[in-house]
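Example (one chain per record):
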Amino acid sequence: MKKLIFLLSILVSFSCANPTETVSAVDADQVVADITAMSNDFQSAYITRDWDTASKWVSADLGTTIYNSNGSPLTVQSQDEVNAVRGWDFGTFEMSNHQVFMSSDMNTAVVTFDADGLINFEDGEQNVPYATRASQTWVNEDGEWKVMHSHWSPRTNSQGIPQAN
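Predicted structure:
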């Protein structure tokens, strides 16, 4: 009987012990809000050709790629590509309707959104309507969110960015 009481007391003491490791809960709503803000900031830096800001969200090891809305080949979003003179620029650019889809481990996110604006050509038309839908894949790399890939497509009866000559 003493052995049974001893065994029970050991089990009770282990079951009541404080855990030595605290696991913090992830606030999913805050992660979604943070990723939406990062997506907006990254895209704003990209369209204004500000690599110094855009690069904060690009993995130094893996980089980031894009399929542009004009159907051009896959492009690596490097400093040269982001800062390149394009022959056109956005007069206005607005992102809306963000949706964020998280992986079960909260380390990968796919962001979808719409973008609307006006494009001005250096030697041509001004205020050409622009309307696309886009998705971005973000990964948590050592505690920092990085954009890995973006895909843009014109919305129905709309056009995306112009094709490079």
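Caption: The beta strands are 65-67, 75-76, 88-102, 108-121, 128-141, 144-154.
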